[in-house]
Write a structure and sequence with these properties.
Elements (H helix, E strand, L loop, with lengths): L1 H26 E6 L5 H16 L3 E6 L4 H14 L3 E4 L8 H9 L4 E4 L11 E5 L1 H15 L11 E5 L7 H19 L3 E2 L7 H4 L6 H15 L8 E3 L3 H13 L12 E2 L6 H8 L5 E4 L2 H16 L21 E4 L2 E4 L3 H6 L12
Parallel strand pairs: 1-2, 1-3, 3-4, 4-5, 5-11, 6-7, 6-8, 8-9
Antiparallel strand pairs: 10-12
Helix pairs in contact: 2-11, 5-6, 8-9
The structure holds beta-D-glucopyranose (BGC).
Amino acid sequence: MKKRIVFAVLAGLLLAAGCSGNKSAENTVGVIMPTRSEERWLKDGSAIKDGLEKLGYTVNLQYSDDDIPTQARQIDDMISKGVKCLVIASIDGSALSNQLANAAAAKIPVISYDRLLMQSPNVDYYVSFDNYKVGGQMGEILIQGLKLDQATAANPVIVELFAGSPDDNNSVGFYQGAMDRLKTYFDRGVLKVPSGQIERTVIGTLRWDAAEAQKRMENLLSAYYSGNVVLNGILSPYDPISLACLEAAKAVGYGSTPGKPLPVVGGQDCIVASCKSILAGEQYATVLKDTRTLGAATVSLVDTLMKGGTPTGLDTSSYNNGAKIVPSLLLDSVIVTRENLMTAVVDTGYHTAAALGL
Ligand code: BGC
């Protein structure tokens, strides 16, 4: 009797181990985010993980410390562990072709998350915001904040321009969207860039590094703004860059000297520090890309693929990654200023009032 019980328990344990082993291999989704050091990717990572776990999937979530070889290794490791689907937010969109080829050989579908994976045919889907529209909103922020429709060529508005990381395809959409929106003001001579630094390749910020942007802003201020020229606005593609530029401006008297108000600066990502700055009347605005919505869209796409289904309603013309048009799901973003911050950010639960110190 005793022997039989021991045998039954052992058999049960072995079965359970076997089952869970198989189940986790069959059910695992690999999710790779570029870095832990930016607020948004932490939110993205947990939105996807929580959503997939609620549906019963096992999630292997890794962050790559903004290091390309680390990211490549993590993907290879996930492939060799037998994940059934990969969700990748790249660091350098063009640096993962070998890994993507390995995934394709192992028949693992790849979803390019937020940032487009470039120059590879082995990218199955792209889930992101409409990056060109996001750029348009960055331009719109300057149009509103600087009242460009009332400006004249006799008294032009003075700005400097910043772009995102050159190896991130999103930077192209953000820049192009913003510049197309601002073009008419440049053409009419009501908007001027004293440094003459306008091309995306010249104004880019490798790895979206706010310290690098701050240094560039400091250099611009000392090289082009030493006389009576006052900087009125800054095109910024990313909240930490906006805050860093504001610091550089404050350091030379903006915001505390008559005739030198803080420049109008937009941003992107709606991070807590920028929301606080907007409420304090410093950063003018940001663009909210709700990571919960992007996460949910991704979870639903993964679920469809894991069940062998075919996703529908995708955009099949907008995103060419250099090797193919990648079917895309593109979400909408929202401009957030002091006027709508409570309704767009707090009431929707994106940040709590307490997190914003309210
Ligand atoms: C994302 C932005 C983010 C930036 C820096 C871009 O690819 O779309 O939301 O601000 O990377 O992480």
